[in-house]
Design brief:
This protein is mainly α. It has 2 domains: about 210 residues, 3-Layer(aba) Sandwich (Rossmann fold); about 80 residues, Tyrosyl-Transfer RNA Synthetase. It has 12 helices and 5 strands. The strands form 2 sheets. A 3-stranded parallel sheet has the order 1-2-3. Strand 1, helix 1 and strand 2 form a beta-alpha-beta unit. The protein is globular and about 70 Å long. The mean pLDDT is about 95. The structure holds adenosine-5'-tetraphosphate. Adenosine-5'-tetraphosphate binds next to strand 1 and helix 1.
């Protein structure tokens, strides 16, 4: 049986957070044997917020190393930088002409990010989902593994693909989101009603945090005045810690609740801290090793670009033919 295609991406907008890891990239590793996987570092998406060029360069390269450090095999998977494949921008322009302002206006991420960056509400922030649709549709992805926050963007991608297919006949594969429930939305440790983001200043665990820092951030996590450990909408802090624990330990939420039933908040925090440290330590070690392999990494970056470009080029040619471009 032919393997199905999977596409996913991560912005190089900072040091990845525990949310990015548990909600998205950890699942990529689990998928690499079963699917044809194409993973990109969405450096163009990262431009929607102003960045220091040297910092963006560093975050982007570090992200590439990190994807290898978490266990993605660069031969099995196509791993590349979005900006290395110009077809993404070309297709995004075309798809802009098949996307309605009303659809984009409904995107909650646009609303959230406009609030967060009120001094720079640029058109890229608004059309972000169209570029994301181009990313996915270029590679005929059947599945898009993602955190719950990106579900709406996959929905709009499906709408655009269906609309295009209806007008021009079968052109794009219509993708489905794949959301891993236990890590789907890891919340900020200081504001557990808000998702953890790599660009947050506080309440975030970064994948390169040292063990002591991880433990102290978890010890300072906001909880509540009750003392019972279970998941509930009125216990967002405790629910978040249980989610982190169950996802890090690969157990169900119910198993985590059972394990902590007779323990107190202090014990919960220590166990969560230890689980996260145990999860991240081997990744951090591998990342440091890869930093010393510059030539090898440069070669992989080039190979990723070539492999992705080949697929993207064919698809864009097809689209151009269909819509009547010479
Ligand atoms: N808190 C989260 N819990 C679960 N999954 C999450 N993801 C992000 N935050 C969480 C998932 O990580 C993948 C990569 O995300 P991205 O970097 O492309 O964009 P984002 O969703 O905007 O991530 P951040 O960390 O919030 O970035 P900034 O701070 O730059 O805006 C996606 O699959 C996402 O769902």
């Amino acid at each position: 049986m032919e393997k199905k295609n999977v596409y996913s991406a991560i912005q190089s907008s900072g040091i990845p957070s525990l949310g990015n890891y548990l909600g998205a990239i950890k699942n990529w590793v689990d998928m690499q044997n079963e699917y044809n996987c194409i993973f990109s570092i969405a450096d163009l998406h990262s431009l929607t917020v102003r960045r220091e060029p040297s910092q963006l360069r560093k975050y982007s390269r570090d992200m590439f190393l990190l994807l290898l450090a978490i266990g993605l095999d660069p031969e099995k998977n196509i791993i590349y930088f979005q900006s290395h494949v110009h077809e993404h921008c070309e297709l995004a322009w075309i798809l802009n002409c098949y996307t309605y302002m009303g659809e984009l206006n409904r995107m909650t991420q646009f609303k959230d990010k406009s609030q967060k960056h009120s001094d720079n509400i640029n058109a890229g922030l608004f059309t972000y989902p169209v570029l994301m649709a181009a990313d996915i549709l270029l590679y005929d992805a059947e599945y898009v593994p993602t955190g719950a926050d990106q579900k709406q963007h996959v929905e709009i991608c499906r709408n655009i693909a269906n609309r295009f297919n209806q007008i021009y006949g079968d052109t794009f594969t219509v993708p489905e989101p794949l959301i891993n429930e236990s890590g789907a939305k890891i919340m900020n440790l200081q504001q557990p009603e808000k998702k953890m983001s790599k660009s947050d200043d506080t309440g975030v665990i970064f994948l390169f945090d040292e063990p002591n820092l991880i433990m102290s951030k978890i010890k300072r996590a906001v909880t509540d005045s009750d003392s019972k450990i279970y998941c509930s909408p009125d216990k967002p802090g405790i629910t978040n810690l249980l989610k982190i624990y169950s996802s890090a330990k690969k157990i169900s939420i119910e198993q985590a609740e059972k394990f902590f039933a007779d323990k107190n908040y202090g014990q919960l925090k220590t166990c969560v801290g230890e689980a996260v440290i145990e999860l991240l330590e081997p990744i951090q070690k591998k990342f440091v090793e890869l930093q010393n392999e510059k030539d090898y990494i440069d070669k992989l970056i080039l190979t990723g670009k070539q492999r992705a470009s080949e697929i993207a080029h064919k698809k864009l040619q097809k689209v151009k033919r269909k819509i009547g471009l010479i």
